[in-house]
Amino acid sequence: xEQVGETVAARQMGYGLLMYAPDDQHGARQRVRVYRRPxxxxxxxxxxxxxxxxxxxxxxxxxxxxxxxxxxxxxxxxSFQVAPASGPDLHVCTHGRVDAACGKFGAPLYLALQxxxxxxxxxxxxxxxxxxxxxxxxxxxxxxxxxxxxxALARQLLTRTGDHTELSARYRGWSALSALEQHAEAAAFExxxxxxxxxxxxxxxxLQSEAGAVVELTFNYPDGSPGLLTADVRxxxxxxxxxxxxxxxxxxTPQYRVSWRR
Length: 262
Fold this sequence. Notes:
Protein name: Sucrase ferredoxin
InterPro entries: Aim32/Apd1-like (IPR009737), Aim32/Apd1-like_bac (IPR010350), Thioredoxin-like_sf (IPR036249)
Number of helices: 6
CATH superfamily of the largest domain: Glutaredoxin
Helix content: 10-25%
Strand order of the largest sheet: 5-4-6-7-8
Shape: globular
Oligomer: single chain
Organism: Deinococcus ruber
């Protein structure tokens, strides 16, 4: 794992491990999902699923890491690959040992979402950042993070119904983009509506300074025609926020405003 950390840092890779608690049907088997970023504009990451027995679970996970991060040849993994399940997976952080807020607010949300009635699986997971956003949810394979989610809003997200601005106010961002690009992409969801979440899209920063950035978003409309939005993302001040529930210390957190160019 030390070598993995050094490799990720040296190559400036986007890589992370998210552990999710098994449900009863898996028994002693270990399930691993690998998500990769496709080339070009996209709406969701590609997904591969692997199932390892109890005797080979540790070696299997390490082999996946060695293959995907270190670039080592691991042909034996082919025998453990299975067809991935369809539909989204909602990962709810319930990791109270990392931050009490995730245990207090995340666990009830996870329990409430066990019977959503929608085509989605819900998992208890290890922490993925953002204590103050509890209950916070990582949506895969989309790669989106959500803040202060409720059971009603989660169902709204899965069904793409109702007022989308209720969700846009809780949107933490899309992991495929840089920090300032995420502000522009989130504002585009607020502007465009539900179809935006499923639209293939890409972003690039045209200009960046200490005050913000100019971000260009390219995408496809639902009918397949291309679209373009250019956003000015500007810092407009800071808000003093606590980083976690473990300390009363606050930090100056930048706030941004997005405006659109014609």
